[in-house]
Predict the structure.
Amino acid sequence: MAALTDEMRAKVRDIVCDVLELEPGELTETSLFVEDHDADSMLAIEILASLEIGFDLTIAQSELERMVNLAGIHDVLADVLAESAA
């Protein structure tokens, strides 16, 4: 698993806050997008698409089930970056 830089983590937070219309302070590493922030499946797909554009990579839609909070997104991005570097 590749490690994400602080800059990458900040970019992820910005993207998620933008899509979910949250202030950065409202979003924690472990707050759940659906349960805590009323996200629906369309917003989850929008987050995935925004991450793909923002980081210029492809994320399998099957990874959505892991992308339930910031920590999950960080894990998925680290895995995708590690695979692309291999």
Helices lie at 6-20, 33-37, 41-55, 70-85. Residues 6-85 form a domain with the Non-ribosomal Peptide Synthetase Peptidyl Carrier Protein; Chain A fold (CATH 1.10.1200.10). The CA atoms of residues 8 and 55 lie 9 Å apart.
